[in-house]
Structures are given as C-alpha cells and as structure tokens.
C-alpha cells in the first residue's frame, strides 16, 4: 500500500504530476482510504478527470466475473477470478445479491444494474444512466407471454420513470431475450428477439432519443440458436446449430447497421451447450454439457476449462462479465441515486 508522509504533503517534494501518476496506479480500496489524507487529495481522487483516468489506466486490469451455483447453499453467487489463468477466484460479499434478483447487467464504467428483462445503458448526451424495462404479461392458459407488454425507461438524472403506451416493435408478439453478457455499445442497447415462433431479429434502443428500431440478422442463422455479445468494439452474434452432434460456433460482426460479416468459425465441439461471449477478443466463452465454463483460444485453437461449481440438477447458463475496478459514484450529482445495502430486508422485499 502506498503511504504518504507529512513531509511530502507539507514541502511538496514531489511534483503534482508525479503524485498523480502514483495515485492512478493504486487500487480503489486504497484510494478511498487516501481521500481522508487531506482536502486536496479528497477533491483530486473524487474528480471526474481522475475517476476516468483511473478506470482507463493500463494497470487497472480486466477480471473475469461469472455467476455460478453453490449447491451446498442452494443459491447463485458471483465468482471473481483474480489472475489470467483463472486458477483462483473469490466471492466478494458486495457482489452477492438476494435470491429474488432476476439478473445482473453491465458493467458500464464499473457500475452494475440489478434487473429483470431489461437493457442498461448510458445516455452519451447527458451522462445519465438509463434502465429499459420490458415486462411481459403471462397467459397462464396458453403458457406463453401475453402481448402487449409494458415498456418503461428509468433516468438516473431525473430519478424518474417514463412509460411507453404504444411501442409497435415490442408489442408485435416479439419476445426479447437478455444477453448473457453486456450488449450496450455507443449509446445503444441491443436485444436478440424472436417473433412468430421462427423469425429472428435484433431490437435496438437509443439511449438519447429513447426510440426503438429493428435490425435484421443474416438469413443463414435464423434457423440456428445463439446470443449477442461485444467483440472488438462491435456487436457480435454467436450462432450454433445445437441439434448437431459436432457443433460449430459461427461469429458474425456488425460493423455498420444491418451489415454483417462472418469473421470466425470455431469447432467442431461435441460437448458444447451454449456460446456465451468473448474474453478479451482472443477467446470464445462456451458452456459445456456438464455445465463447465470453457475458453477456446482463436489463435492457438486450444481449449481450457475454468474450474467452477456447477448446478447438480439440470443445466443452467452462466452469466459472464468483464469486470474492472471503478471509482464511479452511484450517488451522482445531488446524491439522487440510492445506495442500498443488498443484505437488508428492504431490498429483498423490493425485488419480490
């Protein structure tokens, strides 16, 4: 841990830019402690410039965060892997949530959102976080969603909800599926959707204009199953024919709206259940038939398995995230956003 001394603070032995470089390389926990050293450091570490630079600093490495199952406790927890070879993980208390929580989304600038079927993004024009909630009413007799659905958008800046009464693209017998990783990019959130039982398309929501639009997918993948992910600053579609014994995963990238290019095919694999996303653009994340998380390196063409505790009865699909430490405050300007204790009874009741 970096420990300042009184001489450095009083006499200014180190130039300001050197102190800045030292602070930028420290972990978040240490920086939060150093904010108590003096008013100057409190203001510096809490400034928007410092927060952004620290988040982008090369020393602030990405870590793999996954949801997995604890059969001994009969609950899902989040495991944060602390090294590149994924040999060791920890289960941070601050990332564990009530069992009633439906999903975790993000991160955006290190911020996660606890939601159901939704989209989570940032309005680049205002800097406000926005949550897009899509709720389907269930038809118990037919055991299918009953349309129309309820679409609402939460704005962190105004701390308010806006409800959409008529959204044709969402209410036209279309079922939107949340991705297993972050699919927000450049002010737009993307869902993979299915309607009329067979038709597949992408639903996009612009966080600034708050408007939906539909994006077509390649015809050759409409008969396959897959998921959306981010790859090299683009929206990517991973598709796979799960009915085949030897399964291949095709990776399509959308460089421009509706313009798709197949950049990669990995496989064949015999024991693959579902493609999950990417790790640092060099590895494809896959879930095996025995619910183990596997990474396929596109350069070495080798597989490696991440040790994790799997669900014993039936299968589940992992959620995977690329996690970086962040000094971003949820309170924002004017302390409008609430900071909740996830272990409190209030939060558990809220998510019921």
From TrEMBL:
Top-rank taxon: Eukaryota
Segments forming domain F-box: 8-58
InterPro entries named in the record: F-box-assoc_dom_typ3 (IPR013187), F-box-assoc_interact_dom (IPR017451), F-box-like_dom_sf (IPR036047), F-box_dom (IPR001810), SCF_F-box_component (IPR050796)
Pfam families: F-box, FBA_3
Signal peptide per UniProt: none
Cross-referenced NCBIfam families: F_box_assoc_1
Protein name: F-box protein At5g62060 isoform X1
Species the sequence originates in: Sesamum indicum
Organism classification: Eukaryota, Viridiplantae, Streptophyta, Embryophyta, Tracheophyta
Gene name, Swiss-Prot/TrEMBL: LOC105177207
